[in-house]
Amino acid sequence: MIPRRFILVAALAACAAPQPVASPAPAPTPAAAMAPIDEVVLRADLSRFASDEFRGRETGTPGERMSARFIAERAAELGLEPAGDSGFYQRVPLVLEQVADTSPFTVTRGNRTVSLQAGSDVIPLISLGDGVYARQRAQGGIVFAGYGVRDPVTGRDDLANLDVRNRIVVVVMGAPAGVDDATRRQLEGQDGLSIRLQRLIPMGPAAVVLLFGGETGASLFEQFIPVTMRSMTLAAGSAAPPPDAQRQVPMILLGRVERAAALLPAQWPDDVRPQALPAQFSGNAVTTRTAITGYNVVATLRGSDARMNRSYVAIGAHHDHVGILAAVAGDSIANGADDDGSGSMGMLAVARSMVTGPRPRRSVLFIWHTAEEQGLLGSQHFTERPTVPIDSVVAMLNMDMVGRNGGVTEDFVAAGGTPSPDRLFIVGPAAAPSRQSRVLGTVVDSVNAAQARPFALDRTWDDPDHPERLYFRSDHFNYAQKGIPVVFLTTGLHEDYHKVGDEVSKIDFPKLARVSALVRDITTALANRPTRPR
What we know:
This protein folds into two domains: 68-94 and 292-528, Aminopeptidase; 101-285, Glucose Oxidase, domain 1 (3-Layer(bba) Sandwich). It has eleven helices and 22 strands. It has helices at residues 5-16, 39-49, 62-78, 181-188, 190-200, 214-229, 337-354, 377-384, 438-449, 476-480, 509-528, and strands spanning 81-82, 89-99, 105-109, 112-115, 122-125, 137-144, 150-151, 156-157, 168-173, 207-212, 230-234, 251-256, 275-284, 287-301, 312-318, 324-328, 331-333, 363-369, 393-399, 423-427, 456-458, 486-490. Strands 1, 2, 11, 14, 15, 18, 19, 20, 21 and 22 form a ten-stranded mixed beta sheet that branches.
């Protein structure tokens, strides 16, 4: 699942520039004739797929190619039909833009110059999506803007009377004393980034530096490193970036308070007053651009009804992850057992079960996407250049992070969430536009109710305005943009999200098997349904 950084950059790009009634769902089609989900094989597949051998499956690396090959070989063994542009593979042409860790960033105070290390002390945001780029070079005097907040209740405004034009403005991603817990979480999280940047960028600074503090901030900063130091875009329509002087967005740097103290007042944290500092900043984010190829894996289970088997129920997951991170206790490989090894191997389990029973009337399209972690690029490529007619896809079920017992936020225990093997989050029936997924939602409810042990379906995130923005953060979103009914199933975020701790040992395999069985049965119900779920 992608971080909200990709929702944030859409907002930054903006800085630079009668409803149908849902029909009742039919009774679910039983899948009793199909083999049960084989938990032993599921465990064996995921143990291999999320092993160190795959090196974290970052798109464009040998580990990602290994993961695509693993899935394609399993699909062939099961007798699925290849449905890519090269057998089971659909090539996804990408451009990798890397920031050199030798990029010079310095702060000078008097006769003392301090160097900041790119990739550990600070990380630059360069490509903001939709052809919008932040500047790579900046220099000037430093203005400290405190927490960068404006509070109409207290009258506090950290940016009032500050002249930041053509200067380096530094903001701490924290919250002043006295704010409530909800406001504090907002100001310290990714929403706080968007709030501050959307106000600061129009003020014309040469650069904006946002510094994270504390354990929560450090965790968020670490999540940004792999997707900002090594960002990707689809090659199609990816022109060379404009010269630096023509870019409308200033340099944007993220950093950690503890590692970039040279950018703060000498008496920080006792002194939080907005103020000009007696210091100069100079920075140049040196980048390289390289053409690479990622691989979607696409397969079909052909339906039994000649009149309906050219239409498809699609099941999706993503097989990539974030690769190699800073070592924690000697471990630097982000294995991504839950994100999204669980969904990828759950899909294989669904296919393995379905090939043993009577074929449903419609065909089933299995799509393992690449480059999800880089901004849903694999699913964007598929929906823009599909290997089957896109209007033949009647619904899309997305399995992303379906093997744990997470809660409503990453810090789910502190937020009051209780881990539960019976809870399953669904997103799409309410969040997708124009009520296009409402009927699909009733099918999900009906099929779930018929399970031997139904899930407690949690709709907390089924809202496009929810702060976690889950509707926008996984591959179903690109299908919904094409008007396809979607439902995103997930067991929730957890403390190991995008970290080296996302290991196979923490997967709840009985729960993963139950989610896979539910997806199989929903797919069967939809594939036997005489009409589209609209």
